[in-house]
Each structure stands twice: as structure tokens, then as C-alpha cells.
């Protein structure tokens, strides 16, 4: 602690000693919080960051995916609103024979996690054995299994401590936290989608850039090739925010008929995955390959196989009306004529959560049918009376949701579409 406080570099042995001792309970919280605060102010060198990441990886179980052929490229998003990319990317790159062996949790948020969304498909389940999981991925390239094992306990403990000691917002601590979880779950290579804007953890582009570069350096320093995309989350991604609604949006996107921003983001992230999986030499070449499997139906066919393999009713792909349907559809009309100038992503996400699309606490039940469909996005013209958003609800009175939507969508004389991809880090 004193050494870090004074701005000196910690050795690998010192970092391991701390993480092992803290995980075991031999080092008390007050010492750990002093170290977190010292790191917050003094930062960490590249080698300290790599050591901290690997010490946290080794603090618990790690997933062995060596039984799966090929390079396992994992994608991680720092989180946003209505982010349907995982549902699209797994079958999309799967159609190019790139394995996705995803372990996923449920967690809290505006909408459910990947597993919750997929459970909008009747019969789909993630309770499969490890053997079955491996067998499916080897044969068909894509499967999702529920989280098991005790991954990165040091990170869980540290994160909880940081939360109450004002030390969450530290680039070396965030970067090692995220990277340790990806590495412990078996990734050979990693693609990161670092969001920036109102709906993101990193509110400014500068912070997002710093975090992306920090994570890419850690990955490359510990032998996991890593690339990153910095993408806009000032407004929600795509049109759909809600579980069944996002499954539908994923299907449209796999057909090449999805929202422009979601499509662009999956092609950008997907290209990095294809290059890291060594299926293409350049991002441009990778993109052409992805566009091809979208156009020729292979990506969509892969999605059907994926659903079927895990008990899901794959007929929803051709019959979306078989997805859970909300009882009420309520339009939210624009009050004035103009251009959509701003849409506060996280608040719109909360509007979806009020309907029951996501969990505020672990005990909350998700309603898979409900959510929001944006009818306009930032930069689009709108006439008074035209719908801005359609609310999909299972309750008739949605005055609270309507109020939140009006509070967080601004119509003005002018507005410009935000840049979606701020930069790529390779
Ligand atoms: N998300 C994480 O997983 N870890 C952090 O430290 C911050 C955000
Ligand atoms: Ca969406």
C-alpha cells in the first residue's frame, strides 16, 4: 500500500500476494480499499495492469475451452441500452465457422441479459451439460450456457469494495476487472465494444478511448489478441428495447433488414472477430464475408440451428408473431414538428424497465413481451402527431412511461445523427 501510495511500481509477486490474501480473507477490506485508493490516484504501469488481471483470473475457476476447435473470440460490451449485438454476432460469425462458446448470466439492467432475451423463444434453455455444450459448439459453432463455477472471486470482492469506497472510476481497475472476466471464461482473443455517451458507463469519448486502449494493451500483454471499437450510446442502439422485441430485431438484422446503426456496429465488431479468428487478413475482407452470409441466408440459418440445438422453437424466425406478445400497443405522438435533436439513452432504458423489460433488483421478474420500439431516431424529421415511440405493455395505464419518454426526447429546429463508430483500436 505504502509503495503504491508513493507512486512506485508493484512487482508480480506483490500483486499476487495481495490478490491471494484478499481473496482468502487474510487481507482485510480496509487495506484493500487503501490500495484501491492509491491506485486511483497513482495509476498503474502496463506490467502492473497485466499482473493484476492475471492474478484475478487465477483467483478462482477458469473455463477450459481447449476442447473446442478453432480460435475462441469473445465479444464484450461495456453496456448500453437496447444493445442487441450479441444475439446477432454469435450466429453471424458462426456462419463463417468461428466458434462462440458463450457463458452468460442474467444480471440487472434496462432489459434482460442475452439469456433472458433468448428465452423469449419458446423452449430455449441454457441448462445443458458441459459435454453437450462443447459438442454443439464443435458441430454448429454456437451455444450459450448459464454461468457456473466461481470465476474471478477477487474481482467480485474488489468491485463490491470499490463501489462503496469511491474507487470504481479508475481506468486500470476497470480494465483489469473486465479483462479478467473475459480471460477466465476461456477467450483466446477478445473484441471490445466500448460505449460512450449518456447511456454508457464512460460518458465522454476521451474516457472511452482511454479505457479501450488500456484493455487492448492488457490483452496483448497477456497473450490474448484484443481489438476494440468505440461506439455511440448517446441514444439507444437500433429501434427495439425489450427482450422479445430485440429477438425480432436480431432476426431482421441477420436477414440484412435491420436498423442501420445496429447493422453497422455488428459488421464493425464482427470484422474484428473474423480477423482475430484468422479467417481473414484484413477488416475489409472480413466485412465482405459477413455481408455475404447475411445476404445468402447462412447467418439466419445458423440462428435457427442455434435455437433448435437448445430446445428453442426456430419457427419464430419465420413467424415472429409466435414470440411473446404484449397486450397493449400505445403510440407516443410528437407534440411538435421538427427534428429529433436528442434522446437520453439511459433514461429511455429506464422507461423500458418500468414496463418490466429489465431487472432493477435480482428478485425482479422480467416480462419478455414488453418494451419500446423507437419510431424516430436522432437526426430524423418528425411531424406533430407522428409516433415517436410505440410502447409494448402488459398494463393499460402507462402514464409514467409516457412522461419519461417525453422528458427525454427533445424535438428542435435541427438535429444531427450522432457518429456511431467513434474509432477502432486494432
Ligand atoms: N464493469 C466491470 O466489470 N468492472 C468494473 O470495474 C467496471 C465496470
Ligand atoms: Ca436494439
What would you say about this model in short?
With 426 residues, the protein is α/β, with parallel strands linked by helices. It is built from 16 helices and 13 strands.
The CATH superfamily of the largest domain appears as: Nucleoside phosphorylase/phosphoribosyltransferase catalytic domain
- Taken from the alpha-carbon principal axes, the silhouette is globular
Indicate the proportion of strand residues.
Answer: 15-25%
Quote the average pLDDT.
Answer: 95
Strand order of the largest sheet: 1-4-5-13
Number of helices: 16
Rg is 22 Å
Given helix and strand content, the structural type is: alpha/beta
Tell me, what is the CATH class of the largest domain? Alpha Beta
Bound molecules: uracil, calcium ion
Q: Write the CATH architecture name of the largest domain.
A: 3-Layer(aba) Sandwich
Keywords: Glycosyltransferase, Metal-binding, Potassium, Transferase
Cofactor: K(+)
EC number: 2.4.2.2
Domain Pyrimidine nucleoside phosphorylase C-terminal: 339-412
